[in-house]
Amino acid sequence: MNKVILMGRLTRDPDVRYSQGETPLAIARYTLAVDRRFSRRNQEGQQTADFISCKAFGKSAEFAEKYLHKGTKLVVCGRIETGSYTNKDGQTVYTTEVVVEDQEFAESKKFQESNDSGAPMGSAPSPTQAAGDDFMNIPDGIDEELPFV
């Protein structure tokens, strides 16, 4: 089975092109910066990330063109596709990218706009502040009273 699920932020606006022919097909390419979950921080103390190339076709590509932009946090489901080509120097170059089957926003527009307006990207809301998705975070120590924890 070839299935991949990623969550990350777009490193730049998607590059969308249309194929030639009777019925042009939209093809979107973008790169997701995906934080490594359990990794050491680099010399500057920043978390490391992997930069994953993704491509979407048809309606998914048109969606990317219309709604996605640099910094958008996405969840992408798809499959890994590998390939190779010979460059102008005669060397074989190997490629790996994710063919997008499904893409969804990973945060609300409201939360994203609050990050765009000056709050640091990784800053979390305070325990009593809404997380941007209209749900209130539960302060520490209350979870013993909740029947479903």
The chain-level mean pLDDT equals: 81
Low-confidence stretches: 118-131
What proportion of the residues is helical, as a percent range? 10-25%
Number of helices: 2
Q: Into which percentage range does the β-strand content fall?
A: 35-45%
Number of distinct beta strands: 6
Compose a concise summary of this entry:
The chain has 149 residues and is mainly beta. The chain has helices spanning 58-67, 109-116; strands at residues 4-10, 15-18, 26-35, 49-57, 73-86, 92-105.
Could you characterize what this model shows?
The chain has 149 residues and is mainly beta. The chain is built from two helices and six strands; from the N terminus they run E-E-E-E-H-E-E-H. The chain has helices at 58-67, 109-116; strands at 4-10, 15-18, 26-35, 49-57, 73-86, 92-105. Strands 1-3-4-6-5 form a five-stranded mixed beta barrel. A hairpin with a 5-residue loop joins strand 5 and strand 6 (92-105). It is globular, with a radius of gyration of 19 Å.
Task: Supply database-style keywords.
149 residues, mainly beta, 5-stranded mixed β-barrel, 12% helix
Task: Describe the protein's topology.
Elements: E1 4-10, E2 15-18, E3 26-35, E4 49-57, H1 58-67, E5 73-86, E6 92-105, H2 109-116
Parallel strand pairs: 4-6
Antiparallel strand pairs: 1-3, 1-5, 2-3, 3-4, 5-6
